[in-house]
Amino acid sequence: MVAFVAWYAVSDKLAPYTDRGTVSGYIARLAPRVSGPVISVHVEDNTIVQEGDLLYVVDPRPFEIAVQQAEVELEQATQSINASSAALIAAQAKVSQARAKFENAKTSNARTQSLVQRGVAARKQEEASRAELEVAQAEVDAAEADLSSAEAELGAAGASNPRIKAARLKLERAQLDLIYTRVVAPTLGVVTNLDLAVGQYVSAGSAALTFIDGRGAWITADMRENQLANIEPGNKVGLLFDALPGQIFTGTVHSVGWGIDTGRTASSGLVQNEPETRWFEPARRFPVRIELDRALSEWPRTVRVGAKATVVVYAAGESNPSAWIAMALHRAQSLLSYLY
């Protein structure tokens, strides 16, 4: 009994053990970017998919119509710009004509004034000439105002024109929405817990299926607070999965969680670990993230997200008596796992 208690105390510091390990992974609730009824589903439950594989299709007809409408609006904007360009050319011609008429009136007025001063022409001719000059000046002002209005109406030339740019952006948005009617796998992964069917209406931003990212998985081990003293990133780890009895895998401590949710407050985004209310409250548990010492392509296929793992962390290294004893006990447990 004394030896057991002594081993328990020593192992907690040098080779901490827990049977509360869980296989974790990145789980996403994939949502469409557009709304509409589903017209086809291209995967089955628990299907392994590659990046870009088609998962399901939202009815594209409303979005095809939106693309066609945007194309028409772009064409109309282009035609409007062409018409405005013609109006601008006409306004420029009117300005040139008005300025030429003004110069002629100005020359005629100067000649009339000279004749009046020499007594050759009557004063009334001078007044008529001055009136013609004022009319010509007014026509120049009106033509220049029309030209300014035509320039403002036309805006920048070519693709830089605001109306053209707005129509192009609307078309690009419609084309993008049409692409989004085909929902594809974002990465290598697995579709699971599938309950999507043809005819079901899906909404943009609302989850439609569950996707497990196949690019990463790890083990989350809940260690008691008094086991964390010597656990550090880089420590070697022994792993036993219930799904693979008799086999010991190796891993490495990636990190130790910095916070937990005690359950006394609202959801905080932290791992929840509600304290017990017994006389002697047990130590609280913090998550330790462990990476498997092998490539993801070699990850055991029968070990799935949520699977149980038994963990021994060799906090004092693997070349000491405490580690040897822990390894032996872990090996014995792996053999016993055939029975339960």
UniProtKB/TrEMBL annotation:
Coiled-coil parts of chain: 121-153
Keywords: Coiled coil
Residue ranges of domain p-hydroxybenzoic acid efflux pump subunit AaeA-like beta-barrel in the record: 218-313
InterPro entries, A to Z: AaeA-lik-b-barrel (IPR058634), MdtA-like_BSH (IPR058625), MFP_Efflux_Pump (IPR050393)
Keyword Coiled coil set for record: yes
One Pfam family this sequence matches: Beta-barrel_AAEA
Domain Multidrug resistance protein MdtA-like barrel-sandwich hybrid: start-end pairs: 28-208
Top-level taxon of the source organism: Bacteria
This protein's name: HlyD family secretion protein
UniProt source species: Rhizobium rosettiformans W3
